[in-house]
Design goal:
The complex is a heterodimer. By secondary structure, chain A is an all-beta fold. Chain A has no helices and 13 strands. In chain A, the strands form 3 sheets. In chain A, strands 2, 5, 6, 10, 11, 12 and 13 form a 7-stranded mixed β-sheet that branches. Chain A has a 4-stranded antiparallel β-sheet with strand order 3-9-8-7, with no helix packed on it. Chain A has a two-stranded antiparallel sheet with strand order 1-4. The mean pLDDT of chain B is 91. Classes of the chains: A mainly beta, B mainly beta. Chains A and B meet through strand 5, strand 6, strand 10, strand 11 and strand 12 of A and strand 4, strand 5, strand 9 and strand 10 of B.
């Protein structure tokens, strides 16, 4: 069975600080996909990134960066120079690739990020 | 990317009544799912909506309480039946393609309050 753990329940930082959100996953599949989503107070899920298990390259998108390490089953997310608009709940998720198609996502419990001005 | 329209966006319902949530995808997708997010919690999968056949429910969710339809590749409904205050949650529709890019697209969610 697959599992995603986000050990940080809530993080509070001051604007312009860097912050890293941790994600550890468990899966028996060799092919799987990892995701990060942002959920602002309005409730919609905003897709941030997808990574497949064969691509361990780290990725940077503006102030966002992701560190994927299969050796430690981690897919951490860093926001550089945080802004108040980054305040939201962030979810890490895992999807296994079944023979009949992709399975639904298993979500972590989420990390609430509060960026203080 | 696929765009998912979900409605209603929110509703306040009386206990004992039922609410049907609609999910429309703007392109053909193979996989459609329904999730529930209880207040302050993460997302939990309710079921996989299968085209033309009965949905596949996760442990703890049953068809009598959450009947699901999927008459074609782009449309699905979730009904929350005989509602109680414990059903107050955000319900989200999701869609994925089997091949190609692996993004899971989500609707904007339905915020349900049962009084």
């Amino acid at each position: 069975a697959q599992k995603v753990t986000q050990a940080q329940t809530e993080i509070s930082v001051v604007e312009k600080e860097d912050v890293t959100l941790d994600c550890v996953y468990e899966t028996r599949d060799t092919t799987y996909y990892l995701f990060w989503y942002k959920q602002p107070p309005s409730g919609e899920l905003v897709f941030l990134i997808r990574r497949n298990s064969f691509d361990e390259q780290n990725e940077i998108s503006g102030r966002y960066s992701w560190n994927f390490q299969k050796s430690t089953s981690s897919f951490n997310f860093t926001i550089t120079a945080s802004q108040v608009v980054d305040s939201a709940v962030y979810f890490c998720a895992l999807s296994e690739a079944a023979n009949t198609g992709r399975r639904a996502l298993t979500f972590g419990s989420g990390t609430r990020l509060q960026v203080q001005p | 990317s696929a765009v998912i329209s979900q409605k209603p966006s929110r509703d306040i319902c009386q206990r004992g009544t039922s609410l049907t949530i609609q999910c429309q995808v703007d392109s053909q997708v193979t996989m459609m799912f329904w999730y529930r997010q209880q207040p302050g919690q993460s997302l939990t999968l309710i079921a996989t909506a299968n085209q033309g056949s009965e949905a596949t429910y996760e442990s703890g969710f049953v068809i009598d309480k959450f009947p699901i339809s999927r008459p074609n590749l782009t449309f699905s409904t979730l009904t929350v039946s005989n509602m109680s205050p414990e059903d107050s949650s955000i319900y989200l529709c999701s869609a994925q393609r089997t091949a190609g890019r692996a993004e899971a697209f989500f609707g904007q969610g339905t915020r349900l309050t049962v009084v």
